[in-house]
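pasting for ref
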Amino acid sequence: MRDDMSLTSTHRAPRIVIVGAGFGGLFAAKAMARLSAEVILIDRHNYHLFQPLLYQVAAAGLAPSDIAWPIRSILRRQRNTSVLLDEVQAVDLAAKQVVLANERIEFDYLILATGAKHSYVGHDDWESTAPGLKTIDDATSIRRRLLLAFEQAEMCADATERERLMRFVIIGGGPTGVELAGTISELAHHTLAADFRRIDPRSAKVILVEAGPRLLPTFHPSISDYAGDVLVRLQVEVRVDCLVTHCDARGVMLGEELLPAATTLWAAGVVASPVGHWLDARTDRIGRVMVRPDLSIENYPDVFVIGDAASIRDSQGAQVPGIAPAAKQQGRYVARVIGSRVNDRATPPPFHYRHAGNWATIGRRSAVIEFPFVRLKGFFAWWIWGIAHIYFLIGLPSPLLVSFRWLWGYVTYSRGARLITGSAHTD
């Protein structure tokens, strides 16, 4: 145990511990760069991940290094901030300590930005068959599954099994499911079209399954209809009002119908990290902690929960969505609250969420964007979507490199990240 981490903070600058280096945690840390305090950022990974582009890694469009950067590199100029590579086991609120595997770290202020994980609606045994997409490991595992399916089909002599190998099922018609379906179809019909000799990758079947009545349920119905039309043009089979009843190595059961498929991907929902259990706090139905207007938890004004792990409503009474802009705003806001206390200044007003719109891309030429007073779709929306996402990339010169790769990929349909790494039995 490191003695400096276990000492009390009564004879030092205030200690602020941040758990999680996603958008919320990282932007909170960056906002406290000039604060007279000791900031400790803890994450189980050594990198920050730009999750909105994770599906591009899964479909071999980008390399992991294009959308992830070392946390220490991002924060290297912040002299008041240190980074720990570790995983939190619990939080001791009475002692004001974060419990790690081999030590306890005391805090004056605690920010929990631990995100969310896949929810399999009571069927956790489906995870090995239908992986979700939340981490770099998830993305590279999915990329391996996709590319191996074509490789195995190339060597398969049985027509029925070959058809199963070249059928890809995505469960969940939200933005992630729509983006995956579109880009996997383009991978098969364009990028890989001329790469094989025994099979025609263009004969692959991509099927998007949604339990509800329409795709993109958080968007306006007209946007949902447009997304469905674009996917059909991309040769994606869209099935709505279809409930998945079972997943296994054979494929997917839709009611009593078996849909044979070697590759099934899950994009149907999330559940919050175990932060509610750590804090013994009130949570909503998916495990998000019910926070107060300043994002602190009840009875503990120095403990804050932000991002996907927090449940809070906006000024219109709607749930603040678990998306990157919301997490960034919450991270900056909590930094202001803590800064006001450390500097003995007036407390900021309650958190106010400024909605940046709903965004989703559908393949390489179409996107949908829904702002409060205007809806955009098509090629123009796709360019706005791309520019916005590149602008928010944190690493430099990564935005320029990613821009070049996207432009080259757009012109040539090529994907330079088509590497099969790891081993199949690790999936």
